[in-house]
Amino acid sequence: MATVSLCMITKNEEAVLARCLDSIRDAVDEIILVDTGSSDATKEIAAHYTDKIYDFAWIDDFAAARNFSFSKAGMDFVMWLDADDVFTEQDRAVFLRLKESAWENADVVMMRYNTAFDEQGNPVFSYYRERLVRRSVPHIWKGRVHEAIVCSGRIVYAEGVAVTHRSVKSFYSDRNLRIYERQIREGEALTPRDRFYYGRELYYHRHYARAIQVLNDFLNDDQGWIENKIEACKILAYCKLEVGRLSASSEGDPKNNRPERLSDCPNTSLPVNSSDDASGCVTDVLAALTRSFFYDLPRAEICCEIGNLLMQAQNYRAAVFWFELARSLPQDDKSGGFMSADSHGYLPCIQLCVCYYRLGDSKKAEEYNRLAGMYRPSSAAYLYNLNFFKPQI
């Protein structure tokens, strides 16, 4: 049976650390915790689980802290978790079973990372991460922010087990943005991966013009991972949408919440018929989304975004095409990219319900609402539509 060192870095994680360690303590062989400057009870909590607690002076570099934590490991495999990650009981049981023999020929174990969930707690957004590496194989974390392991050897995908991310944070801090900007000030070149994530951070913090510039520079560079390129096209579209909204609004209220997808913006329908400027914005957004087709075959996530944009423009027939295409595309869970399960099922179905209703076909609209309910039976939109389509007595 393989042995596992769990290596974590922490700072002020008293709210979630015990939850994390309780979920995995019996499945690993040692726990190493590297603290980067907690002022709360994080280290006291950690002491109930391990005596291998180390201090590391924070230098605005996650990779440096991760590498230090990995250097303390002594088992066959080194594993990482964040303090707001957990293993469900089912996932822990599978993890223990796989640990017995499944990783004998593995140097890197990839594991699904579930980060968003539906009304019943089922994962709807996930991607694979390098979760364990064999300690004897050369490996190193790189990247001050959104760090990743550079490793080599035989890669195994752990089937049927995932790490669940359960954040309790109520706001998105500017820490990552500040680290990138410090890196730039200090003259350290941003890698293509850095430029992608820097552009995303700029978008998160509403620096849309700068985000557009950084993302375009990233896309115009021949280097960079295809999955990041496709995601960058989507974020670029979001930025252009927000720029269009602000220019079309007399107030430009900055208090609106950041959308995760265009479909999450019920109050952001673009006034495409009111001015040339607004129409141009739609064209810019569509151009950003379709730019992703230069890098690979269409992705369901992109097709849904195009469908949502066309819905906002009240071009329901065209929207139907893109939602149907999204439904037909296969799910490539192991591409390494961010994968929205909703984009392959629930989202196109619930939007097709709206489209067909607007086109005057209530029968098809009701049918697609029923299909949407098969994916997410507790969805508020599905339940509302279900009641809407009830025969009036």
Brief characterization of the structure:
The protein is of the alpha/beta class. It has helices spanning 17-24, 42-46, 62-71, 89-101, 175-185, 192-204, 208-220, 226-248, 276-290, 300-312, 316-328, 346-358, 362-375, 380-388; strands spanning 4-10, 30-35, 53-55, 77-80, 85-86, 108-117, 123-134, 139-142, 148-151, 155-165, 339-340. The protein folds into three domains: 4-165, Spore Coat Polysaccharide Biosynthesis Protein SpsA, Chain A (Alpha-Beta Complex); 173-296, no CATH class; 297-330 and 340-393, Tetratricopeptide repeat domain (Serine Threonine Protein Phosphatase 5, Tetratricopeptide repeat).
Q: Can you walk through the features of this model?
A:
About 7% of the residues have low confidence. The longest helix has 23 residues. The strands form 2 sheets. Strands 1, 2, 3, 4, 5, 6, 7, 10 and 11 form a 9-stranded mixed beta sheet that branches. A two-stranded antiparallel sheet has the order 8-9. The termini are far apart. Helices cover 44% and strands 17% of the residues. By secondary structure, it is an alpha/beta fold. It is globular, with a radius of gyration of 23 Å.
